[in-house]
Amino acid sequence: MLMETFYAFIIGSLVVLALNRFPRIAAVVAIAVSLLPLFALIYWAPLVGLTLPSYLSLLRFETEISYALGPGTILLQITPLGWFFLFLLATTFPLVLLFASSFVRDNAGGFYASMLLTMLGSFGVLLARDMLTFFIFWEIMSWSILALVLRGHDRRAIVSYLAFGSLSAMLLLFGFMILYYKTGTFLFGEMALEATPLTLAGISMIVAGFAVKGALMPLHVWAPHVYSRSEEPFVAFLSGGLSKLGYFGMILFMYGVATVPFFATWGTFRGVPYFGYALAVIGAFTAFAGTVLAIMQDDLRKLLAYSSIGQLGYVAIGIGIGTPLALTGALFQALNHTFFKAVLFLAAGAVYYRTGRWKISELGGLGYKMPFTFLAALFAIFALASIPITSGFAAKWLLYEAAIEQGFLFVTPIMLIAGVGAFLYAYKILYGVFLGEPRHDVREAPLSQLVAMWILVLPLVVFLVFPGWVLDITSPILQEYGMQPVAHTPYVITTNLAAYNTIAVILALIGTLFLALILYKWKPQKVVPHEDNYLAGEPPENYEYISMHAASNYYEPFEDVFGGIFRKGAERGWEIVLAGAEFLSNGARRIYTGLTEDYSIYILLFFLVLVGWWLLW
Amino acid sequence: MIPELLQPVFVISAALLSIGLYGVMSKRNMLKIIISLGLVDTGVNVLIVAMGYLPGGTAPIENGNYALYVDPVPQALVLTAIVIGVSVMALALAVAMGYYRKTGTLELDKEGVMKW
Amino acid sequence: MRNEDWKKISRLVSKRSLWMVHFCTGCGAMEMPPVMTSRYDMERFGMHAMATPRQADILLITGYLAVKTLKRVVQVYEQMQDPKYVIGFGSCTINGGMYWDSYNTIKDLSKYIPVDLYIAGCMPRPEAIMDAFLKLMDMIDKGEAIGWKKYRKYYDQYKRNQRMAFAYRLDEVKEIKEDDAK
Amino acid sequence: MVIEIIEKILLLSGMVALGFIIGMFFNGFARKVTARIHNRVGPPIYQGYLDVFKLFAKKTNISHGWIFDLAALFSVAGIALAFLFLPVAGISLLSTEGDLFLILYLLAIPALGFALGAGASGNPNAAVGIMRALMLMLAYELPLVMVIVAMMVHYNTTSLATLVQMQSNFKWALFVPQFFIGAIIVDMALQGMLMEKPFDIAIAPHEIASGPMVEFGGKHLGALMLYKMMAIVVETTLFVDLFLGGGVVLSVEQYGWIAYLVNFLVWFALITFVFFLALLINAVFPRFRIEQALKFYWKYDALAALLLLIWVYAGVSI
Amino acid sequence: MVALPPVLLIALPLLFAFLAPLVGMVSRRMVKLYTLLVLILNALLSILLFINVMANGVVYEQLSGFYPPVGILLSVGYLGAILAVLINVLSPVVYLSYFGEAENSVKFSMLYMLVTASSTGIVITGDLFNMFVFFEITAVGSYGLVASLRTKEAFEGSFKYIVLGSIGSAFILMGIATIYGYLKTLNFYDIALRIDTMPETARLMSFIFLIVGIGVEAEIFPLNGWVPDAYQGASNRVASFLSVGPSKAGIYAIARLIFTLIPIMSGFELSLLLGIFTLVVGELAALRQRDVKRMLAYSSIGQMGLILIALSLHSETALVAAVFLMVGHALAKSILFIGSRDYSGGLLRNPLIAGPLFLGVLSIVGMPPFPGFWGKWYLMVDLASRGAWTIILLIVFTAIVEGVYYSRYLFRGLNGEIRTLTKSEIASIIILASILILIGLFPQYLYDPAVMAARSLLGGGP
Predict the structure, then answer these.
(1) For residue E406, which of E302, E278, E322 has the smallest C-alpha distance?
(2) Where exactly are the structural domains of chain C?
(3) pLDDT digits (tens, 9 = 90+) for E378-388
(4) Which ranges constitute the DSSP H helices of chain B?
(5) What is the CATH number of the domain that holds B37?
(6) Residue B63 banded pLDDT, cuts 50, 70, 90
(7) Chain D contact for A400, CB < 8 A?
């Protein structure tokens, strides 16, 4: 059924293209096809030690397959790592399409077709057993994303995506070629890497190529533009699901193909190879700078985009440190980020669907108008800010523990302060969109959108209580790389330094909330209209013209302090690179002067040079 | 292999070629360029004909005397080349005419859009 | 514990924790700093100046009120939470004081909001203010400071008077009169 | 089993009640101290209890909707939760179930809950106040976490209970030269955490009408007061646990219940002292602007913390 | 199956081309249909020829009764057969886009058939002078096609093409003269057999003459001054056809030159160097280009450079890559040229236009599973196995540059005034895109012939 899944995706995408005029039917077809990876996921669950009831696995999927495709062979095999990331993608994908069924209106067939192709690519990437397969599916995913980016009609998004997409592809290709040159094979399993500088360069290029997709700074430039100018269901999947593939690739190549001893050849810093340490530092910088930039955004989607960049920086830190604790933390963070960022983007989409606005300063007061959207977003924001009443905290905790365990004195404070920064922009979303002065008389989002959001919230709640379940499915990955899994029970995670008992936190919270509720219900209360606000006795009349919303330029003092340093820093750097290329380009262009005399002189000169070179020398 | 006698022909051929190329490289007037191209063609044709020449050879006509006749192939080649050259030249003139009709000049302009 | 006892304790405690919001319009505000600082130190009695009416128990109006200002005062008063007390400070709030014949100053504050206590004088000395506070505490203790109840009870009447004060065209006044007739 | 659970619940509830009681005491204490510095008489030392009682006894309580109500719930519940996870006078009820990171994040629950309610009121003053509070948080957290990380690496633990245990027998972190500096840095951060002057930017009553609390009155304000008072206890306890051995002077194994009592008294004295220091600064300083506060913490305090990190880095080898 | 003589492939369109005016006398409209039918017939013939070659090996045919070396020999090799199919199948599809325009149909159609026939001639001939003649016919036809738009730019571009083309043909002639002067033969096999008997200097001179001459047509860097101007001046479908027919024929001639005719090691080195220069200059020049046709022309130059690099690596993998690159480039560039008529914006809002153009860009940029990808991948694999990191780096760099300017291209097609293409143009690009997709999904049908072509070329065959 594995190859059939791929066929189903290709045929499905053609069918939905043909159904362009009937968006509803196209959505149903797309969702039906999109469930296939989910079935595969369930069927393969025993691989990571999960025993699911057999009636859940409706279809059978091969665990390993090879398929001749012309010059090359497609080699596919499911691994625990692939399963973990497939879990993230396959669960998000149908829900995102469900959301899209009411969100995407024009040219829906193209949308679903491209979405199916992205999933096809991702599915292949997660199963790839050799570099050719990996690259083919990786690029299919990349260009189908490009097709979706094109729908946004935004110059910077298209240019930056394709430019960085080619950069990423070429870095990967270059790196793959180096590995091929050194090992003579494309198969991941058969590569025995020698510790030579060239191999290290290859691995670095590959990691850099993945960093583009994972939007690590300074290779993140495309992400804010793309995230802020595409349709929300797609962006939810891009940020939630597809960006994880970059980190999937990093783990695969840093711990599956290369190994810790390989990196340790060039020395270690506090038990972590310098390579990993550098990645962790870049990750920490990304986490911090992404957060700072997110704080300064007014466009809701840009804010979420920079927040994505920042949060994914943590994943990079975990991968860089590379101890079992850190890898577990990275995977857990990836999982959390998938769900909460998907919810946030979808909530943003629902808000846009009802109000038609993106700017935080133009929204407000939707919490009472769209309570279910608000609550879903609230949960996601709690997870984003890693408040310990969602699963968001467990991941960050693991990462902090890992960093302290290695004695990282300088990386850890940056991680922590980026975490605090997350509160700032999290509150900006809450306040600017859902709280404060109501400005739009709107209804709650449609049912399909609510269902999609709330199902995505579910894992955040479940893994809040039982973070051990995530650790259960990450343990086989660690074992595969010869590492000791992190000690845990369903609700207690234990490290060398401390323990974290979720049940204790939750029960204590319930208890204190109960106490607070008693205190609070003591007295009756009166709800007053929103306009009844204390404004130095000034009654707010004429709501049309007076705005009490403080969300525009919300963190202005912050921008005064940080704006100069961070705003457009990376972008300007890349613009300089581009300007250099364009300078060269101008030079090349000047060759073609448009004059026959010059052209014929070139020919004669070329002839003379050749004659001189060969005959006289 | 190549007879001494032919060296002046090579010189002539080279001279024609050089003049032609010089014309192409220095003139901007279409007609002058076309004339220069004609010179280049002629130079090359002279070279090819010289290739097949045998000193004292006759025309390769079937008259029983097989002993000494010039190689017919280069002549055939040259004939073809001349035909082609003429057709190219005719086309070039037609293009030049068209260009003149559109712009009123035969000079290729330097400031046009067709550059860079 | 009986309800009465409960109320009694509540009053006993409340009187020792009175928070004020100052509505400083006239020159009377000048007399407040001595009351708050070390010379007289009203914090001895748990009194405290608060920034917003939501948090305050006492509305202290220090001086004359123009009609426009009255609008704000009413707004602030209505935003306060029961139980709430009003202290009219200085003669301006009692009879207009030196603005008694001004066309746009209100003369008797208690026509518009229920005043629990007036402090006479132009200016009242800090001693007088302290005395007034103690008096108010005493009234609260005895359950006599019931301005907030009055405002609820005679809400229509107060509203009518306020409208009358805010009206600045003759037809508006006529309208109010017609409403009275009904 | 059931008895054990009931015992535990009672113990925890008692702890929360104790925290609130001490917190309310601190309110009166602070006002008294400030008044004495101002050469005033000041309110009675039990003023905090009166204020909270009065607020809960208000006749009308105005709410702006259910999101607004969440503020009261989450701020009280969150701060109590954070208190439960702190080792108090060497007694660790839940502090072995989590660690210092958990406490740092638990401290955010009441803050965010509070901010949620304040935002829901729709008052621009509240929004500005919350902005300032969050930025202040960002500002003081940097030096704070730098010192905390240094301590974690130095002691090789992240658990606060273990940290307190390691400091028993007067091996206080304060007496380690690096962390003496660290204590000074954290004390400065504490000033911001407690929102005492010069860092009471968020609730500046004269500029933004007490900021986030502008729309709170009656029981809502009462709940917030409880939160603020309890926060004093939590934050000073955090400081005491970090640097002053959590107030543990006698070992429980040796002295039994007397040790509990003495430890408790010492802990109380220490947190009062720490708070007293903050009050002294509070009484004589004017207010910073928010960007000044940010620059103060990130320039001077964080620089000092960075030097500390380098010192610890040179001293620790793993 | 009947083994049809390959000469039909050249003779038929030539014959029908000169019959076109007769048809035009009857009805002007009929001419287009007539031409299309002729081209389709030719395409079918080429496919038959292809199958024949793949099944039975190289097909030879002697013309006009003389035996080689005097007579003219047609020899259809594997690469020749692939390119013959490519040219002859794409030529009617590109011609399809011409429907819907009333003007000039007879002359245009004649020239079109002429160029198709002569380009095919280049790839299936076995005689050097014959190749020269076909080159000239191709060139003359192309000059006419470029000028067919009858604008100032068209005439100017055409004139520049004529000048450079004539100089180039002079160089080819000199090369032929040199070779003939020494070897007295023009047959490829004869030359290849006896090339070693030529003095070193003469051999090198003839190589230089030929590579300069052919290089003009094959768009190699210092010789390709005409390319941007002619492409910019020509109408879009002519530009499209130029990138299908003449340029591929030119690159085939280069391949024959360096592999069979004068296989000297320094020849490979030179063409590698030229390929690198062509690639870098072409791609860089495209980066800042505002005019879409000119940009695509520069991009063509870059692609030619890539193909040349692949050819001159002298290995099976690289030659397979070259075949994939040629096919990919011909398909994708013809889509892009046809689709970019009036390319100022709004074009990509129509999914029927956007789809093919998007696929075209993907193939050029080298995204799987399109032929451009396989080309780049195998080129990289070959370079990697030699450890030629500098060249890889340059290819990588130019690929990123390509990404940048194609993204600008895509953006320009999205915003602005809504315009559209004629139905025939849309049909044409959709057919081209489907061929692209088919090759992408079933690359083995191109891979196997490509491998045979590579082996044959490496063995010194056609």
Answers:
(1) E302
(2) 3-181
(3) 898 899 888 88
(4) 7-26, 30-52, 72-103
(5) 1.10.287.3510
(6) low
(7) yes
pLDDT digits (tens, 9 = 90+) for A575-593: 888 888 888 888 888 888 8
The owner of tokens 């995204």 is E367
- Distance in angstroms (rounded) separating the CA atoms of residues E459 and E453: 10
Instruction: Provide the shortest C-alpha distance from residue D303 to chain C (in Å).
Output: 37
| Type of residue at D246 | G
Give the mean pLDDT of chain D.
84
How far is it, in rounded angstroms, from Cα D313 to Cα D133?
32
Q: Over the stretch A213-249, which tens digit does the pLDDT of each residue have?
A: 888 888 888 888 888 888 888 888 888 888 889 999 9
3 state SS of E255: helix
C53–A538 C-beta distance less than 8 A: no
Q: Are strands A268-269 and A272-273 parallel, antiparallel or unpaired?
A: antiparallel
Retrieve residue E268's tokens.
């490979």
Q: What is the DSSP letter of A215?
A: T
- Give A561-577 pLDDT, tens digit per residue: 777 777 767 778 888 88
Q: E140 and B84 in contact by Cβ < 8 A?
A: yes
Mean pLDDT of A1-16: 86
Q: Do B81 and E173 touch (CB under 8 A)?
A: yes
pLDDT at residue D318 in the model: 41
What value, to the nearest 5°, has the Cα angle with vertex D130 and ends D127 and D133? 155
Q: Going by DSSP bridges, is the β-strand pair C85-89/C117-119 parallel, antiparallel, or unpaired?
A: parallel
E164, pLDDT greater than 50: yes
**Using CA atoms in the order A70, A75, A81, A85, what is the torsion angle rounded to 10 degrees?**
40
Q: Does the beta-carbon distance from A534 to C79 stay under 8 Å?
A: yes
Quick check: D294 and A388 CB within 8 A?
Answer: no
Report how many domains make up chain D: 1
Q: What is the DSSP letter of D37?
A: H
Q: What 3-state DSSP class applies to D285?
A: coil
- Please check the confidence at residue A166 and state whether its pLDDT lies above 50: yes
At E76, give phi and psi (nearest 5°). -95, 105
Name all chains with 3 or more CB-CB pairs below 8 Å to chain E.
A, B
Q: Do D59 and C82 touch (CB under 8 A)?
A: yes
Query: For A538, which residue in chain C has the nearest alpha carbon?
Result: C72
What domain range is B89 assigned to? 4-57+67-103
* DSSP assignment letter at E310: H
In a domain, B114, yes or no: no
Alpha carbon distance A583, A172 (integer Å)? 26
CB pairs under 8 A between A and C: 17
- Which of D83, D96, D132, D138 is the best mutation test for A, with the most CBs of A within 10 A? D138
The Cα angle at residue A583 between residues A580 and A589, in degrees rounded to 5: 145
* Higher per-residue pLDDT: E352 or E247: E247
Structure-model confidence comparison of residues C164 and E299, the more confident one: E299
pLDDT tier at E328, thresholds 50, 70, 90: very high
HEC readout, A27-83: HHHHHHHHCHHHHHHHHCHHHHCCCCCHHHCCCCCCCEEEEEECCEEEEEECCHHHH
Question: Cα A555 vs. chain centroid, distance in angstroms?
Answer: 26
Please spell the DSSP secondary structure of E365-396, one letter per residue: HT-TTSHHHHHHHHHHHHHHHHT-HHHHHHHH
E366 dihedral zone (left: phi>0; alpha: psi -120 to 50; beta)? left
Q: Which residues of C touch D46 (CB under 8 A)?
A: none
Smallest Cα distance from B114 to chain E, Å: 6
Do A166 and E407 contact (CB within 8 A), yes or no?
Answer: no
D317: confidence class by pLDDT, cuts 50, 70, 90: very low
Report the topology of domain C3-181. Answer: Rossmann fold (3.40.50)
Using 50, 70 and 90 to split pLDDT, how confident is the model at D161?
Answer: confident
